[in-house]
Amino acid sequence: MSDLNEHTITDAVLARLAHTPDPRMRTVVESLVRHLHGFIRDIEPTFAEWQTAIDFLTRTGQMCDDKRQEFILLSDTLGASMLVDAINHRMPAGATETTVLGPFFVEERPELPNGADLSPGRDGERLFVRGTVSSAGGGRIAGAQIDLWHSDSDGYYDVQRHDLDAPSGRGRIRSDEEGRFWFWTTQPTPYPVPHDGPVGELLRATQRHPYRPAHLHFMIAAPGHETLVTHLFVEGDAYLDSDAVFGVKDSLVVPFKYEHPGTAPDGTPMPARWRSLTYDFGLKPLAGTAPEHRA
Ligand code: BEZ
Ligand code: FE
Predict the structure, then answer these.
(1) What's the CA-to-centroid distance between 216 and ligand 2, angstroms?
(2) Which phi and psi angles does 31 have, rounded to 5°?
(3) Are 159 and 190 in contact (CB under 8 A)?
(4) Whose CA is nearest to atom 3 of ligand 1?
(5) Which three-class secondary structure state does DSSP give residue 58?
(6) Any atom of ligand 1 within 6 Å of the Cβ of 103
(7) CA distances from 289 to 118, 241, 280 (A)
(8) Is the CB of 195 under 6 A from ligand 1?
(9) Residue 290 Cα, ligand 2 centroid: separation in angstroms?
(10) What is the CA 247 to chain-centroid distance, rounded?
(11) What is the CA angle 191-204-218, rounded to 5?
(12) Distance CA 170, CA 165 (A)
């Protein structure tokens, strides 16, 4: 086909894709072309605007390295990450809802026993967290691997700080024989997603703030179950309705209760006010998994 115009070019490109051998690849590229051409018809960009878009994507790529992933941040702040998450996690009753992984999970984290302090020596309100891990619609899961990470009282993750010589606000624990877990840490605080790059420019251009409401990250893995990637958000946080990455779900917003001085549930004497959080997680069984693997 030649002599193409704005009305015929989309079909010409689609025809050129008709021999793509991998059917999934064909579906994906055809849909991409249809939506991309539809987007261009919708906004009718000038050449200068199209060049601005190409520069933006180029700078987004150039900002990426082994520590910074600006494309994921772009996907997060446009709600695309949470849409992919929603499509892939249609959860059964009793399963905890999921949310974004975020860029601050790292492989290097200490294995800790139940009752450990994830943030020894750090400033911030003391927080005691406890709960259980169960199979959705089934029993408790012993030995579930629970990865934890969160921001500190200044709104930074340990990996963003240069004044720490060991992981902090981070660790891996396991549920006990009765599926229970508990640990100490400091109260997480809201923080901005990285906004010193192209994604920050886009946020400012659209009059959006970069903040995420305070949360704890959990990644919980157990045999025969989908690994759960989620957060627990602090009830009452000012940013719950405007999370920069659209990650909040009502079922994940929970009270981080103030407690009077006294004795914590694990027997720790608490001379000052402290906070407590309780949450019971449900993991989705993998399709076709025998019930004995579902606890
Ligand atoms: C986070 O919660 O750690 C996070 C998620 C998405 C983008 C930036 C940070
Ligand atoms: Fe986070």
Answers:
(1) 7
(2) -65, -40
(3) no
(4) 102
(5) helix
(6) yes
(7) 33, 37, 22
(8) no
(9) 34
(10) 7
(11) 30
(12) 13
Report whether 203 contacts 209 (CB < 8 A). yes
Domains annotated for the chain, with CATH where assigned, are 95-283 (2.60.130.10)
The 10 Å Cβ neighbour count of residue 150 is: 27
pLDDT tens figures, 187-236? 999 999 999 999 999 999 999 999 999 999 999 999 999 999 999 999 99
Indicate the pairing of strand 180-186 with strand 191-192.
unpaired
Per-residue DSSP letters for 3-51? Answer: S--TTTHHHHHHHHTTT-SSHHHHHHHHHHHHHHHHHHHHH---HHHHH
Distance of CA 213 to the CA centre of its chain: 12
Q: pLDDT, tens digit, for every residue of 108-156?
A: 889 999 999 999 999 999 999 999 999 998 899 999 999 999 999 999 9
